[in-house]
From TrEMBL:
Official protein name in the record: Large ribosomal subunit protein mL43
GO cellular component assignments: mitochondrion; ribonucleoprotein complex; ribosome
Record-stated family: Belongs to the mitochondrion-specific ribosomal protein mL43 family.
The keyword Chaperone is assigned to this record: no
Top-level taxonomic group: Eukaryota
Pfam families cross-referenced by the UniProt entry: L51_S25_CI-B8 (PF05047)
Span of domain Ribosomal protein/NADH dehydrogenase: 18-91
Gene3D superfamilies assigned: Glutaredoxin (3.40.30.10)
Keywords: Mitochondrion, Ribonucleoprotein, Ribosomal protein
Cellular localization per UniProt: Mitochondrion
Length: 121
């Protein structure tokens, strides 16, 4: 995804094993889908990395110095392309956990209402 017209993903590392069965999908992805993905995204530096004996990974490095790693073990080439597209489309921010289930400008002073509320008489 771009922030003010600047793509946030700088570098994508495709890590795979040339022997293992869990890397079968990413090897097929590299043959069929990866050249078109590189051609569509000239702003992105794509590096392939051979790691024998390890499961395949996609590593994304962002402009804000964050890194995301996605395991693509036993995935089809279409699923690997979807994971690579998600890495490209994300901004690389850390995921923040919300403190409440709802976000409002004017929070209730008394608290949130629930069905199991006990009213004292």
């Amino acid at each position: 995804m771009s922030l003010r017209g600047v793509w946030q993903l700088k570098k994508l590392i495709v890590s795979f094993c040339d022997w293992g069965g869990s890397s079968r999908g990413i090897r097929a992805f590299m043959e069929s889908e990866l050249p078109a993905f590189i051609e569509k995204n000239p702003q992105l530096e794509v590096v392939t990395e051979l790691n024998r004996g390890y499961h395949p990974l996609l590593k994304g490095f962002y402009k804000n110095k964050n890194e995301r790693v996605v395991c693509v073990k036993n995935m089809t080439p279409e699923d690997v392309l979807q994971c690579a597209s998600r890495l490209r489309n994300s901004q690389g921010r850390k995921v923040l956990k919300l403190k409440t289930r709802h976000v409002t400008k004017h929070p209730s002073v008394q608290g949130t209402w629930s069905t199991d509320l006990k009213i004292a008489n």
